[in-house]
Amino acid sequence: MTFVPDNFTVWMEIPVTDLDKAISFYNDVFKTELKLVTDMGPNHIAMFTTNKQDGIAGHLYPGKPAGDGSGPTVHIACPDTLEETMERFAKAGGEVVSDPIAIPAGRFAYCIDPDGNSIGLFAA
Predict the structure, then answer these.
(1) What residues does each domain of the chain span?
(2) In sequence order, which residues have a C-beta less than 8 Å from that of residue 10 and are 6 or more positions away?
C-alpha cells in the first residue's frame, strides 16, 4: 500500500543563531507576530501562528543553521505580493537569490535569511 497523507509536511523548524534577531527579521518580512514559547522543550522557541488551531506551521529555535543556503529549503507563504515580500526580505537583511519562478500553484523566489537558511517565499 502506498502512503498518501493529506499533508506530507507537518511541521518546520528553522535553526537560528540569535532568536531575538530572527524573531524581528521574520516578523518584519512576513508581517506577523511570532509567539515566544518558553515552556516547551529544552530551549525557547518562536512559533509561526496560523488562523486555524490545526494549521501547519513551525518555529524558530536556537540551533546551528546549515549556512550559505546549503540546507533544505523551507517555503513560507507571503502575506501580500511576492515582490513586496522579496523587498522586505532584502531590506531586513536577507538575500534574494532568484527571480520569481512560476509554477502551477503560484510563484516563489529563493532567498537566504541572515543565518544562511534557504527560504522560499511563496505566493499562490
Answers:
(1) 12-123
(2) 56
